[in-house]
Amino acid sequence: MNAIIFSVIGGVVMMFTGIITQQKKAIRNVAIIALIILLLANIFDTYGILSIHIGTHGMLNFQKFGLYFNTLAYAATLLFILISGADVTQIGEGKHAAEFFALIFFSLSGIAIITSYNSLLLLFLGIEIMSIPLYILTGGDKRNLKSNEASLKYFLMGSFSTGILLMGIALMYGAHGGFEISAMKPSAVSNEYGILDPLGLVLVFIAIAFKVSAAPFHFWTPDVYDGSPSVFTSFMATIIKAAGFIAFIRLFDNKYVELGLSWRIILPLVIIATLLVGNITAIFQQSVKRMMAYSSIAQAGFMLFAVFAENDMAKEGILIYTVAYSVATIGIFAVLEKMEDISLAGYNGLAKKHPLLAATNTIFLLSLTGIPLTAGFFAKYYMLLSVIKYGGSTVTWLVIVAVIFAAISAYYYFRVIQAMYFKTGNPEVRSYNKGFCFMLVILAAITILIGIFPTIILNWFYF
Amino acid sequence: MTGLYTLLQINQLNNTAENYFPIGVQIIFAIGFVATMIGLSALVGPKRKTSDKLENFSSGIASHGNARQPMAVKYFLIAILFVLFDVEVIFFYPYAVNFKFLGWAGFWEIVLFVVLFLIGFIYIIKKGALQWED
Amino acid sequence: MSQLVYLVPLLPLAGFLINGLLRKSLSKQAVSIIGCGVILIAFLISLGLFFQVKANGPIIQTYFNFIDIKGLNIPFSFQVDALSVLFMLIITGVGFLIHVYSTSYMHEESTPHFARYFSFLNLFVFSMLLLVMGGNYLILFLGWEGVGLCSYLLIGYWFKNTDYNYAAKKAFIMNRIGDVGFLLGIFWLVAKLGTLTYGNVFAAAGNLSAVDVTGITILLFIGATGKSAQIPLYTWLPDAMAGPTPVSALIHAATMVTAGVYMIARSNILYSMSAVTENVIAIIGIATVLLAATIAIKQNDIKKVLAYSTVSQLGYMFLGLGVGAYNGAVFHVMTHAFFKALLFLGAGSVIHAMGNEQDIRKMGGLRKYMPVTHITFLLGCLAISGIPPFSGFFSKDEILAAAYAKNPVLWVLGVAGAALTAFYMFRLYATTFLGSFRGTHDQEHHLHESPAAITLPLIALAILSVIGGWIGIPAVMIPDANAFHHFLQPVITTEAIAEMPHATEWLLMVVSVAVAVIAILIALGKFTKRPELNEPQGLGGFLAHKWYIDELYDAVIVNPLNALAGFFKNIIEKSGIDGIVNGVGRFILYSSRQVRLVQSGQVGSYILFMVLAIIVLVLIWINDGYIYTYLSKIF
């Protein structure tokens, strides 16, 4: 409960900070302090210290897994604000810095609800609380037409998925006579609910698949990620997307331990479609930002394996994947934010002029590719292993397909590395300070550290 | 009467194409009826073709200007805010009905609810959203 | 003493590392002392081990688990028993003499190359020791590959000469062909018995079926034909004479080429179980004897003659193995090591004196210029020709006697081979040392006896060539005097040669010696005054061209393979594989370009696609049973 309360308070505090002061640096510092408090409050809550309890009549169910995910998400947000906070304050002529932070906090409170929901109503509320601030953040650059267009598209399509989600919830309510997922029995086991329950579940699945941009519900992703300010793309593509997977995992967790036949067809289909669309389309992109949008679709394909496998290993895997993917993507977007020209050609010869940027960026890209000794390798490794544990030899083909797509992904990630190191050019880079370099090194260090000791994250989980 | 009864009987017995015959008859009848009526009224009714018939009007007064004129965004802002606070009031109705049953706990919760809205209200005023003149 | 076993191979390895790594900084003298010293110490330890083995039986030392996986444990162990200690003595003893010889012979090389030569030579000794000391087939195989590598490196020692490199490659590839067979044999053993340790393999050999035994032994024998230059894989050995002469003496006469004999003698329990394999070995052995001997008759390069003689003598050893005379074969390995090393070193001495001239038609009358070389070479020739009481007589006689017991035809062919041997050896001797000098005036001016570092090993080997056979005197002459048989008794347990009447055995000996003497006399009479200087014609030309075997191999195997490789490279690789690989890349790029177009930016079309997808998913969900059935039918 701490996470929800403190994130809402944090949001309100940020709102009024914007009224009290217009100093960007002060706003940013307040945000960082509020986030640290939020992070600590959640960590305390995880281990049962100083936790606030409010009766929710079983609508929320706090489990260690969800709380621990909150910690990781907030820590990632902290890293994000530390490295990109200054850029957040610049967006939209710099008039709304405090509001942006407030919206991020509200979004975080949505995440806190998603990671702990037990009632489908709260799933709906959580997803909406998480998403609506994002619609605004996407349009944060008010005078930029692309930003406006992205915002409107996101909102339109988001409402569409909300409708589907509500429809699904309604059907499931019809079947079970209640919203609590912990009270629902697997329909695969007993067929007493008829068509309502599975159909409802399909619709809820589709709505969440939309949020995590799984194909074929990914269409909003490239346009929105491309149009919105880069810093917010970074936030949306990492922390928000990972939260969507937690919604999935909680939905399928104890309810559908033995997934029915239809899920064994639908899920692989969605996974392969996601990998296919993400990877294949990313290859041809000339803009690094748009390429990263497709890359995030491709990565979602990998994270969907956790939903498919739905075992302990998958849960551990999604935690590692969250950290690995978030850290690397935040880093890449932080560098991207400093580039004047975000097309591939804009990166030409970066290694000569800004070796640190190029080197850390390379580490992040390698991590996304899944090269050993980076966090991304273990993230993918856990995902595939969890599927093997779940399905054994019957899913080998799926793993092979995934590995092939991982190989394809190397093509477009390495194109950036190639541009930075092996092409000559005159990249124009905005000024950056020592603190930025320091944060980049920290992010790279985390990537490599987890790449060597992936259990660091998991040890905390079981602590 | 007997014929219709027989049809119904067949319908219950087995599910073949011929059993849809009555439905088909009904559909054809419905479409035919509608088409006939429209056709008849078009043929029989009086017709006066003047440009005046195509004019927009309201309550017999001729319109002037285009309805799709740009308006100040403030209108929308205030309208949205009005809806927001108006909806808040709706939540008081169920509370009022259960006022006694919920007791003090319910009271503090509704206070929290109102405080949250007040915070929003203060924020709106401080931000100058309700200032009509810039 | 037994705890020093590991030092025997380790010392040459240390020598290899020191000489190899410090070749730029060590002086020639230091290199010589290190190179020869490590071998000498290894020899002394081997000698100590010899007496211990003689007194206390075999030593088996296990150091660590080399390969330890489920169901297969191969330890890194050394087995020093009668057979291996004998080979160790030959390797380190003859090896030491050849090292000493090399210090003088290779003295004209520049210092780094001199050190390189000695490091390779030490590495060779190390590998060869590993081969004979290994306690299982895998260690043997490690050494087997190691000597193959060293042979390649030393044949191509003068790497600036393309022909020499070609010869080195030929040797390596020929050996690899044999190695494939050897490896397959090892795999078969592992598959059937699950162990490679000698003791366990031989103890469990009785469980093998007849097919298994024949298959394994034939495959191992294929390995031996490569390493020991037997038909059909012998053609690399004559070309291997491209290496420095001491290398030819050590590797291609005394030690490496006898590795196959060692391996088969070591596995005598397996081989004696398969009559088929024994017959194959005997036939290939005698065929090699005759083929190589006939070729040797018409060769004019002094080292080529000796090379073919080596092939021919190796044929005798395999004949011995094939007829079950394992003792005789190993005995012949030993005597052959003495006299063939002697002959090669003598030839080296001649070549050295002649200023790197190898053609015997340009020599002649060297007797008076090089007395020590002459005498020792003559002793070597007598030994190889099987004249009593020289060493070659005893070993060859033992093999021929066993061959007669098996099948008199083998004996007749063997004696014919012996006659040819005597003939070509004395043709070589007469053309080189007798008559008058036929070289240039300049060469004659420089003719001189070689220095002590060359002559001393010659003398030592000459003495061994004379008396070396006396440890294996047949029972016919002096009963119970065969110390050699007695010593090898624990290892070679399966020798079963039919007893013959003493009169028959005496008769066989007399006939073979008489035939050899007649051949010697003919050769001396024919070539002393009028040596063969013209290019041979007709049958002689056929023999001089080595039966056109190399050309045959080129035509039948090499050229078709080259053509096939060209086909693969130009057609399959370029158009096929490259096409597929690049095609995949192009296809993905193309599909990327197409898939991109779906992302039109129109919210309406996006939502349309999503609705369609929802409908499809729901349809799949409703019909999951059918779809699953069809899918499981397809896959």
From TrEMBL, chain A:
It comes from the Bacteria. Residues 118-403 form the NADH:quinone oxidoreductase/Mrp antiporter transmembrane domain. Its EC number is 7.1.1.-. It is a multi-pass membrane protein. The keyword Transmembrane helix applies. GO terms for molecular function: NADH dehydrogenase (quinone) (non-electrogenic) activity; NADH dehydrogenase (ubiquinone) activity; quinone binding. It catalyses: a quinone + NADH + 5 H(+)(in) = a quinol + NAD(+) + 4 H(+)(out). It is found in: Cell membrane; Endomembrane system; Membrane. The chain crosses the membrane at residues 6-23, 30-55, 67-85, 97-114, 120-140, 152-175, 195-219, 231-249, 261-284, 317-336, 356-383, 395-414, 435-462. Its main location: membrane. InterPro entries: NADH-Q_OxRdtase_suN/2, ND/Mrp_TM. One of its GO terms (cellular component) is plasma membrane. Keywords: Cell membrane, Membrane, NAD, Quinone, Translocase, Transmembrane, Transmembrane helix, Transport. One of its GO terms (biological process) is ATP synthesis coupled electron transport. NDH-1 shuttles electrons from NADH, via FMN and iron-sulfur (Fe-S) centers, to quinones in the respiratory chain. The immediate electron acceptor for the enzyme in this species is believed to be a menaquinone. Couples the redox reaction to proton translocation (for every two electrons transferred, four hydrogen ions are translocated across the cytoplasmic membrane), and thus conserves the redox energy in a proton gradient. Belongs to the complex I subunit 2 family. NDH-1 is composed of 14 different subunits. Subunits NuoA, H, J, K, L, M, N constitute the membrane sector of the complex. HAMAP family: NDH1_NuoN_1. This is NADH-quinone oxidoreductase subunit N. It comes from Hydrotalea sandarakina. The gene is nuoN.
UniProtKB/TrEMBL annotation, chain B:
InterPro entries: NAD(P)H_OxRDtase_bac/plastid, NADH_UbQ/plastoQ_OxRdtase_su3, NDAH_ubi_oxred_su3_sf. It is a multi-pass membrane protein. This is NADH-quinone oxidoreductase subunit A. HAMAP family: NDH1_NuoA (MF_01394). Keywords: Cell membrane, Membrane, NAD, Quinone, Translocase, Transmembrane, Transmembrane helix, Transport. NDH-1 is composed of 14 different subunits. Subunits NuoA, H, J, K, L, M, N constitute the membrane sector of the complex. It catalyses: a quinone + NADH + 5 H(+)(in) = a quinol + NAD(+) + 4 H(+)(out). It comes from Hydrotalea sandarakina. It is an enzyme of class 7 (translocase). It is found in: Cell membrane; Membrane. It holds the Pfam family Oxidored_q4. GO terms for cellular component: NADH dehydrogenase complex; plasma membrane. Belongs to the complex I subunit 3 family. One of its GO terms (molecular function) is NADH dehydrogenase (quinone) (non-electrogenic) activity. The chain crosses the membrane at residues 20-44, 75-95, 101-125. NDH-1 shuttles electrons from NADH, via FMN and iron-sulfur (Fe-S) centers, to quinones in the respiratory chain. The immediate electron acceptor for the enzyme in this species is believed to be a menaquinone. Couples the redox reaction to proton translocation (for every two electrons transferred, four hydrogen ions are translocated across the cytoplasmic membrane), and thus conserves the redox energy in a proton gradient. Its EC number is 7.1.1.-.
Automatic annotation (TrEMBL), chain C:
It is found in: Endomembrane system; Membrane. The chain crosses the membrane at residues 6-23, 30-51, 82-102, 114-132, 138-159, 171-190, 202-224, 245-265, 271-293, 305-323, 329-351, 372-390, 410-430, 451-473, 506-524, 603-622. Gene3D superfamilies: 1.20.5.2700. Residues 136-421 form the NADH:quinone oxidoreductase/Mrp antiporter transmembrane domain. GO terms for biological process: ATP synthesis coupled electron transport; electron transport coupled proton transport. Residues 67-118 form the NADH-Ubiquinone oxidoreductase (complex I) chain 5 N-terminal domain. Its main location: membrane. Keywords: Membrane, Transmembrane, Transmembrane helix. It is a multi-pass membrane protein. GO terms for molecular function: NADH dehydrogenase (ubiquinone) activity; NADH dehydrogenase activity. GO terms for cellular component: endomembrane system; membrane. Signal peptide: none annotated. This is NADH-quinone oxidoreductase subunit L.
